[in-house]
Amino acid sequence: MEWLDEIPMAVLVGAAVLIGLAPFVPEPHLLEKYKMFRAGTLRRPLDIVDVAWHLSPLALILIKLLR
Q: Any idea where the domains of the chain sit in the sequence?
Protein backbone atom coordinates (compact mmCIF):
# COMPACT_ATOMS: atom_id res chain seq x y z
CA MET A 1 0.00 0.00 0.00
CA GLU A 2 2.95 2.30 -0.56
CA TRP A 3 1.06 3.85 -3.49
CA LEU A 4 -1.40 5.33 -1.00
CA ASP A 5 1.42 7.02 0.90
CA GLU A 6 2.46 8.79 -2.31
CA ILE A 7 -0.94 10.47 -2.76
CA PRO A 8 -1.06 13.82 -0.94
CA MET A 9 -3.84 14.16 1.62
CA ALA A 10 -5.02 17.37 -0.06
CA VAL A 11 -5.68 15.45 -3.28
CA LEU A 12 -7.69 12.83 -1.41
CA VAL A 13 -9.71 15.46 0.44
CA GLY A 14 -10.40 17.30 -2.81
CA ALA A 15 -11.50 14.08 -4.48
CA ALA A 16 -13.69 13.21 -1.50
CA VAL A 17 -15.45 16.56 -1.67
CA LEU A 18 -15.89 16.57 -5.44
CA ILE A 19 -16.91 12.93 -5.88
CA GLY A 20 -18.85 12.82 -2.62
CA LEU A 21 -21.00 15.80 -3.55
CA ALA A 22 -21.28 15.16 -7.30
CA PRO A 23 -23.60 15.90 -8.98
CA PHE A 24 -24.19 19.16 -7.19
CA VAL A 25 -27.63 19.77 -8.74
CA PRO A 26 -30.41 18.76 -8.01
CA GLU A 27 -28.90 16.97 -4.97
CA PRO A 28 -25.69 15.05 -4.25
CA HIS A 29 -25.84 11.33 -4.98
CA LEU A 30 -24.82 10.41 -1.45
CA LEU A 31 -27.72 12.37 -0.02
CA GLU A 32 -30.09 10.78 -2.55
CA LYS A 33 -28.76 7.28 -1.79
CA TYR A 34 -28.99 7.92 1.94
CA LYS A 35 -32.66 8.84 1.53
CA MET A 36 -33.16 5.67 -0.53
CA PHE A 37 -31.45 3.63 2.19
CA ARG A 38 -33.68 5.13 4.88
CA ALA A 39 -36.77 4.43 2.75
CA GLY A 40 -35.65 0.85 2.10
CA THR A 41 -35.43 1.33 -1.67
CA LEU A 42 -31.63 1.02 -2.04
CA ARG A 43 -31.75 -2.46 -3.57
CA ARG A 44 -30.46 -2.30 -7.14
CA PRO A 45 -26.83 -3.38 -7.58
CA LEU A 46 -26.17 -0.24 -9.63
CA ASP A 47 -27.23 1.96 -6.72
CA ILE A 48 -25.00 0.05 -4.30
CA VAL A 49 -22.00 0.32 -6.65
CA ASP A 50 -22.77 4.03 -7.03
CA VAL A 51 -22.60 4.50 -3.26
CA ALA A 52 -19.30 2.62 -3.15
CA TRP A 53 -17.91 4.81 -5.94
CA HIS A 54 -18.88 8.04 -4.20
CA LEU A 55 -17.52 6.84 -0.84
CA SER A 56 -14.23 5.44 -2.19
CA PRO A 57 -12.17 8.63 -1.61
CA LEU A 58 -13.40 8.74 1.98
CA ALA A 59 -12.38 5.12 2.41
CA LEU A 60 -8.91 5.92 1.08
CA ILE A 61 -8.59 8.82 3.53
CA LEU A 62 -9.61 6.55 6.40
CA ILE A 63 -7.13 3.85 5.35
CA LYS A 64 -4.35 6.45 4.97
CA LEU A 65 -5.07 7.90 8.44
CA LEU A 66 -5.14 4.47 10.07
CA ARG A 67 -1.79 3.52 8.54
A: 2-66
- CB count in 10 Å sphere of residue 65: 9
Q: Is the peptide bond before 45 cis (omega within 30 degrees of 0)?
A: no
15-55 pLDDT tens trace = 999 998 888 888 888 899 999 999 999 999 999 999 999 99
C-alpha–C-alpha distance, residues 24 and 19, integer Å: 10
> 37 CB contacts (<8 Å, ≥6 apart)?
none
Q: Identify the CA nearest to 32 among candidates 58, 59, 41, 57.
A: 41
- Backbone φ and ψ for 11, nearest 5 degrees, come out as -65, -45
**pTM for this predicted structure:** 0.81
